[in-house]
Amino acid sequence: MLFGLLIVPLLVSGSSCPVYKCGKSSTTTGRCISFSNSTGVDNYVITPCIQGLACDFIPEQSSECQYPTDYEPRYPGEYCAEDQDCASYNCFGSKCLGLSAGSACSSTSACNAGYYCGTSPSVCTAQLAVGATCTRTIQCINSAVCDAGVCTTYFSKALGAASTLKDYRGIALACSSGFISNGVCAAAPVSNSTSVISCSFNTSCYAKDGVNKKTCLCSYDGKSYCPLFEGDSQVQQLIQGMPTINSYSSQCHTLNRFGYACYVNMPSTALSYYLTWAANAELYWGNEWVYQKTTQKCVNETIQAPYLNIVKQSTSQYYQCPMYSKTNTTARWSANQCIFAANDIYYDNHYTTIQVNDAVCPSGQACYASPNSGGNVTCTSVALRYAGDYCSASSQCQSGNCTNDACVGISLDQKCVNPTDCNPGLFCNTTSSKCEYNVAVGGNCSNFYHCQNNLTCNLNTCVPVYSLANGDQVDNSTTYGYNKACASGFAAYDTTTYSRKCAIAPVSNNSVNALCNHGTSCSDTTGVYTKGCQCGTDGNAYCPTFEGDPAPVKMIQYFKKIANYTTKCNSANIDAYCFKKSSTMMKYYNYYYTYYTEYMDGPTLKNTEDSFLADFYFPEYWSAYNSIHSSSYGSTLAMSIAALIAFTA
Ligand SMILES: *[C@@H]1O[C@H](CO)[C@@H](O)[C@H](O)[C@H]1NC(C)=O
Ligand SMILES: *[C@@H]1O[C@H](CO)[C@@H](O)[C@H](O)[C@H]1NC(C)=O
Ligand SMILES: *[C@@H]1O[C@H](CO)[C@@H](O)[C@H](O)[C@H]1NC(C)=O
Ligand SMILES: *[C@@H]1O[C@H](CO)[C@@H](O)[C@H](O)[C@H]1NC(C)=O
Ligand SMILES: *[C@@H]1O[C@H](CO)[C@@H](O)[C@H](O)[C@H]1NC(C)=O
Ligand SMILES: *[C@@H]1O[C@H](CO)[C@@H](O)[C@H](O)[C@H]1NC(C)=O
Ligand SMILES: *[C@@H]1O[C@H](CO)[C@@H](O)[C@H](O)[C@H]1NC(C)=O
Ligand SMILES: *[C@@H]1O[C@H](CO)[C@@H](O)[C@H](O)[C@H]1NC(C)=O
Ligand SMILES: *[C@@H]1O[C@H](CO)[C@@H](O)[C@H](O)[C@H]1NC(C)=O
Ligand SMILES: *[C@@H]1O[C@H](CO)[C@@H](O)[C@H](O)[C@H]1NC(C)=O
Ligand SMILES: *[C@@H]1O[C@H](CO)[C@@H](O)[C@H](O)[C@H]1NC(C)=O
Ligand SMILES: *[C@@H]1O[C@H](CO)[C@@H](O)[C@H](O)[C@H]1NC(C)=O
Fold first, then answer.
1. Buried b / exposed e along 561-592 (16+ C-beta atoms within 10 A)
2. How far apart are CA 60 and CA 62, in angstroms?
3. Residue among 612, 617, 601, 614 nearest 50 (CA)
4. Is the CB of 533 under 6 A from ligand 7?
5. Which helix (H) or strand (E) is 314 found in, with range?
6. CA–centroid distance, residue 403 to ligand 7 (Å)
7. Domain residue ranges of the chain, discontinuous segments joined by +
8. Nearest residue CA, atom 13 of ligand 9?
9. Which of 29, 120, 333, 481 has the fewest CB atoms within 10 Å, measured from its CB?
């Protein structure tokens, strides 16, 4: 929790700083912090949780991965995705709802933002204005603290004014200087250096004045450093930023007035101000001045994650792409659910987590999904094969009839309903509802599957695939992009003739599928064509593949090799099962399909070293990829994914 009003004890036992080590595996769903002190020194072994689960760091304790709101239920006014996120079990319009004014209450956490639980009577009571008598800060409005029994605006008292309130870090919350000496607001001490000063464990750090001191504190690197003094520029900035925060904080709950979960619900100006303020304030309040001296990945991904996420969000136009994980923690899932998608806050970052578990699907069912499609998914029946596809049992076919290793379809002039119903060489004419011969070159069509499979429908005429020259007209659209009729595979709108024409295919400006910022666009080498930056599956965003890049160029070359053979396939659905009877054609198809997938799904295929992503979302791709690379294919999928990078380059 980001600087709530709780006091965090600095528990350290032993004669030196705690030791933090990373666990053997990269992630876990179980124990994320394993604590021991048998050697006399505190030792923590840290294994980050899978995406969606979080690790609560409690000094001198072990910890298990949990849903963040299980240990940090949100207060009224804060963001929620479902009822159980809220302490009140009441989530409405993405905000936790609490008790309204005058309702009987037993704790302040139950009352709505703007209220605290009064004592006589015990009802939700409006927070007190500046000047009112108080006993605790939580009674005062969020822009004020309870100093010497009076609600006082944060950091408002001039030098020399009487004040008693200091928080757990030593800052005087009512004084404009942030410091109290001898019961009055006084000039705050400063550090000797603007950079972090090393010190010895359990000694004192003296300020420049040689008088004021603070205890030397341990970081996560096993060493110790001096914390900031109240006169240091970072603390003074925190104080100066407070009036603006005060203008937003009235929407927050009194118990968590500066918490991310409240500000994330606010308009972007307020949120962005908050993020900048909080990133700095955490240096003092969260002791990040000392803790930022950390180098270990497992520490960054757990204990340090909330702070690092605040910094990340405050320093860039930061959009967190969805994060994917495989999980066995499916207790909250509905029956037959294989993908659980949740928009939520994890480690002070608001994003979508996609958790998958295909093992839940019963036999005969599978979890069909593509990355970035979002949402929950339930298991569905395994897809049946189309007329013309290879089969070994009738149960594999849509038609329920496998004869001579092929799924039998409907024959010429017989009644059909769906485009995939007819035998190879035929298409289902939905006007006459009969299977008819596929249309040859130059014949009329209104859809690609009317034409023979080595042709496509362009301007209502069947033309060979990838055949038209640059400048030839294609189906009208005001945009540019992939076109199967063009030899280049690409067509663009021509503003002089108001029509779309085949054109030279654009090539990625940077390396193919380069990193980019979500929300921006990626350009080709000419700067004429752009494509939106797209989320990958590793939390980063990547540029899509352009039509002139190596993968789509090779995709076209390999399609030409299989084009005539595809006339043996279902006219509305060409898939791998059609090629099983010819090993040469199967090989060409596998090349075609891998290049096709790299063209279509470049960003989502990128860095899928977590092998479950490859297996889960791209089984056909990996099956094709492995069969053409069988000689060089290593024992792990991760190796073949590493090879993919060289393969696409
Ligand atoms: C720190 O120092 C104080 C005073 O010097 C001593 O009482 C205390 O036991 C020390 N704590 C540790 C953990 O060494
Ligand atoms: C180990 O930690 C526990 C708290 O978890 C504490 O009670 C105990 O005194 C510590 N032992 C040593 C040797 O520091
Ligand atoms: C800072 O300087 C003062 C004297 O100017 C000295 O007494 C003090 O020990 C120094 N503090 C640190 C942390 O070096
Ligand atoms: C951990 O975070 C710190 C602070 O941002 C950074 O300097 C360091 O490189 C990170 N370490 C790793 C291994 O990611
Ligand atoms: C899930 O459970 C299965 C069977 O108990 C186990 O083999 C697998 O490693 C577990 N997966 C994860 C991600 O914990
Ligand atoms: C996803 O599934 C969970 C659990 O079954 C459910 O609580 C949640 O509302 C679902 N989300 C969406 C967007 O349907
Ligand atoms: C399956 O299709 C074949 C070939 O069209 C046909 O001879 C056979 O009768 C069909 N079997 C069934 C059970 O419909
Ligand atoms: C193709 O369509 C045009 C007009 O829609 C029609 O005049 C022509 O006869 C058709 N040709 C064939 C071969 O069906
Ligand atoms: C489909 O059937 C209709 C009506 O019999 C016919 O006019 C048309 O040419 C056929 N072909 C296509 C491609 O629609
Ligand atoms: C193509 O579409 C644009 C915009 O809809 C239109 O202005 C133009 O006339 C169309 N061109 C042709 C040849 O149909
Ligand atoms: C496909 O058929 C056409 C016409 O018969 C022929 O010209 C072409 O060479 C064939 N393509 C391949 C790859 O065999
Ligand atoms: C399409 O394939 C068929 C069957 O292989 C062949 O007869 C025909 O000539 C091909 N057409 C073209 C344009 O390649």
1. ebbebbebbbbbbbbbbbbbeeeebbbbbbbb
2. 7
3. 612
4. no
5. helix 305-315
6. 7
7. 322-381, 438-645
8. 445
9. 120
CA of 304 from ligand 4 middle (Å) equals 9
**383 CB-contact burial (10 Å; exposed 0-12 / middle 13-18 / buried 19+):** exposed
For residues 323 and 354, the answer to whether their CB atoms sit within 8 Å is yes
Q: How far is CA 248 from CA 135, 152, 272, 479, 647, in A?
A: 24, 17, 12, 44, 52
Give the number of the ligand closest to the Cα of residue 568: 12
Give the integer Cα–Cα distance in Å for 394 and 397: 6
Amino acid at 113: A
- State the closest ligand 12 atom to the C-alpha of 440, by its place in the atom list counted from 1: 11
221 Cα to the center of ligand 3, angstroms: 24
Residue 379, φ and ψ in degrees, nearest 5: -65, 140
Cβ count within 10 A of residue 615: 15
Give the tokens for residue 290. Answer: 């000392």
CA of 339 to the centre of ligand 6 (A): 10
Q: From CA 106, how far away is CA 504, in angstroms rounded? A: 71
Lowest mean pLDDT among 147-161, 563-577, 619-633: 619-633
Enter the tokens of residue 599: 């063209």
Model pTM score: 0.77
- Atom 4 (ligand 10) nearest CA: 478
Q: How far away, in angstroms, is 328 Cα from ligand 5 center?
A: 6
Asked whether the predicted pLDDT for residue 472 surpasses 60, the reply is: yes
pLDDT tens readout for residues 263-300: 999 998 999 999 999 999 999 999 999 998 777 999 99
d(Cα 512, Cα 649) in Å, to the nearest integer? 7
- Decide whether any atom of ligand 6 lies within 6 Å of the 583 Cβ: no
Q: How far is the CA of 451 from the centre of ligand 8 (A)?
A: 14
* Ligand 4 lining (C-beta closer than 6 Å): 292, 294-295, 297, 300, 308
Atom 8 in ligand 1: residue holding the nearest Cα? 202
